[in-house]
Amino acid sequence: NAGVTQTPKFRILKIGQSMTLQCTQDMNHNYMYWYRQDPGMGLKLIYYSVGAGITDKGEVPNGYNVSRSTTEDFPLRLELAAPSQTSVYFCASSYYLQGEVIAGTDTQYFGPGTRLTVL
Amino acid sequence: GESVGLHLPTLSVQEGDNSIINCAYSNSASDYFIWYKQESGKGPQFIIDIRSNMDKRQGQRVTVLLNKTVKHLSLQIAATQPGDSAVYFCAENMGRDDKIIFGKGTRLHILP
Across the strands, what pairs with B36? Predict the structure, then answer.
């Protein structure tokens, strides 16, 4: 398994441009997530999805959009890039079974990240 | 604001000694806690987790302790090695929808 893959690895955008960050997982996980990580900080949840066709907002959703048309893919869309969106973006996935009480069954697996700079 | 935080931003430990990284959380409804390790330029990597119905869980060279009374979580790394140098994050899940909330992180620095 390749796990969680993200493209591109790096990107520089001008203010107002748009782009899509790609995320794919091959582990048949039902849950997928997008986080951003600012320098020296922890991860902030942007959006997440509990399955194909279902998405929900996280802590910092403004300025972003997502879709989940398949189990494998969870793209993140920036419509009007702003300098405040300069960050490293991580996609993650997990298999979550409602009511599961055994630790370790809903471990998140992270992709390598996309470093985005908005100038 | 964040409900998960760490007491120290940087921890320096002699190689071979044990490391203890602490974390405080404020949401008593949280029922699942995870420790992640993040090496420079990489995504977070799962280390160990614990459910709220447990107070201790052991892995290979790592132990997580959970004290629900004072809302405190710790990660113990035995016989710290140079490869343990990284930023360590604790994270919590409130159990309703599997959203994971991360703390700011503690950088572990290994002294030769």
Answer: B46, B89
Specify the 3-state DSSP secondary structure of B40. Answer: coil
CA distance A68 to B14: 46
Tell me the per-residue pLDDT of A25-53, one tens digit each, with 9 for 90 and over: 999 988 899 999 988 778 888 999 989 99
Cα A11 to Cα A116: distance, rounded to the nearest angstrom = 5
Residue at token pair 């035995």: B78
Q: Which two tokens stand for residue A28?
A: 């048949």
**Alpha-carbon distance values, A4 to A44, B102, B109 (Å):** 18, 19, 28
Tokens coding B41:
């330029």
Q: Which of A89, A75, A73, A68 is nearest to A26 (CA)?
A: A73
CB-based contacts of A62: which residues, under 8 Å, 6+ apart?
A: none
Strand partners, B19: B77
Residue of A nearest to B1 (CA): A59
Tens of pLDDT along B87-109? 999 988 866 565 678 877 899 99
In this complex, do B102 and A50 lie within 8 Å of one another by their Cβ atoms?
Answer: no
CB contact under 8 Å between B49 and A107, yes or no, is yes
Contacts of B58 (CB under 8 A, 6+ apart): none
